[in-house]
């Protein structure tokens, strides 16, 4: 008999299963579509923080999770022998006018206060010359860029494969079917949010969450160990395997969440304009998927109201991979030790 059944083999489900198994629980993972079949099987992998201002519980949770990520992914790779492509390589953003420069200076100061722990300063948000990064920097009208050292990158599919390998090393396999045993965690992404709308939403007359379509592309270009870029509202992520991911759209209305269209062509054109070195890079893959967005816009964690021993971990939206290490620890604390450390705004009832 399993102590924990995890339904859903996306980033939240696999990460929770991995931490629970590492702590000694008997775990089974069930997903009829296989690991990383939904939005967790995307291309981008931008682990980027919110700006260091107007601080709140969500930003603090994400900050702590991003700091945990290096050890989390190192342990996953060590356990299963598969690299997730993780690297805390930082991020560059252009400073195109005086208004953005003034904001950047304010955030440089607030990051010194907010991006720190009891151990001291953990990351920087600094203003520097674009020329420091050679040809790998977004065009900047002022010649200056924001360089934050908290952002990291990893390859979503490789990360899911690394988690599956780590689970297998702990005796846990991902099955397509199975019977609920023990406590049950529902980490079922967009489909799970639609189910919650039917079961919980209609009771309170609200939508618990919805899906937001995203489109992304993968180019063949080995940029090396350089920072990711955020320019013209695009994430441009150099991966460790000699590719560069470009993303993404945020589409609230769509007919087919798995099909790419002309919006992706626009993204590619803008990315190549922002980073001319990508002009001749081969297009390897086009991708589209639907990301789960909870009503509160924060991950939705905790007991399923009215269903004993059933729990929800959903709504990662664009920051699921960045939140996953902390989400996994918090859910494992709740499931195994009955320690409730879920912050305000992240609870299931916050979406009701």
Automatic annotation (TrEMBL):
Oxidoreductase recorded as keyword: yes
Chain segments annotated as coiled-coil in the UniProt record: none
InterPro entries: FAD-dep_OxRdtase, FAD/NAD-bd_sf
Gene Ontology cellular component list: cytoplasm
Positions of the FAD dependent oxidoreductase domain: 3-334
Keywords carried by this UniProt record: Oxidoreductase
An annotated Gene Ontology molecular function: oxidoreductase activity
Pfam families hit by this protein: DAO
Entries under Gene3D superfamilies matching the protein: D-Amino Acid Oxidase, subunit A, domain 2, FAD/NAD(P)-binding domain
Domain of life: Bacteria
Protein name (record): Oxidoreductase
């Amino acid at each position: 008999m399993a102590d924990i059944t995890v339904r859903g083999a996306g980033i939240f489900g696999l990460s929770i299963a991995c931490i629970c198994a590492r702590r000694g629980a008997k775990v089974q993972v069930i997903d009829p579509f296989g690991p990383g079949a939904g939005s967790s099987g995307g291309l981008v992998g931008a682990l980027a923080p919110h700006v260091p201002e107007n601080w709140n519980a969500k930003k603090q949770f994400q900050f702590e999770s991003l700091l945990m990520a290096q050890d989390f992914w190192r342990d996953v790779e060590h356990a299963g022998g598969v690299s997730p492509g993780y690297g805390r390589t930082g991020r560059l953003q252009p400073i195109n006018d005086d208004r953005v420069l003034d904001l950047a200076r304010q955030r440089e100061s607030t990051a010194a206060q907010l991006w720190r722990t009891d151990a001291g300063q953990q990351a920087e948000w600094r203003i520097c010359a674009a020329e420091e990064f050679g040809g790998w920097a977004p065009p900047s009208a002022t010649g200056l860029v924001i360089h934050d050292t908290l952002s990291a990158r990893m390859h979503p599919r490789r990360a899911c494969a690394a988690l599956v390998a780590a689970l297998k090393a702990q005796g846990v396999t991902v099955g397509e079917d199975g019977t609920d045993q023990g406590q049950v965690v529902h980490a079922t992404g967009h489909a799970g949010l639609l189910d919650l709308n039917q079961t919980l939403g209609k009771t309170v007359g609200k939508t618990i969450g919805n899906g937001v379509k995203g489109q992304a592309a993968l180019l063949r270009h080995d940029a090396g160990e350089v920072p990711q870029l955020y320019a013209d509202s695009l994430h441009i992520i150099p991966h460790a395997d000699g590719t560069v991911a470009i993303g993404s759209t945020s589409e609230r209305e769509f007919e087919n969440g798995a099909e790419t269209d002309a919006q992706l062509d626009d993204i590619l054109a803008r990315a190549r304009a922002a980073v001319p070195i990508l002009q001749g890079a081969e297009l390897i893959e086009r991708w589209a998927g639907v990301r789960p967005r909870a009503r509160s816009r924060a991950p939705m964690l905790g007991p399923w109201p009215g269903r004993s021993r059933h729990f929800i971990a959903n709504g990662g939206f664009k920051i699921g991979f960045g939140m996953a290490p902390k989400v996994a620890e918090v859910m494992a604390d709740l499931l195994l030790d009955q320690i409730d450390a879920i912050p305000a705004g992240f609870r299931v009832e916050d979406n009701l």
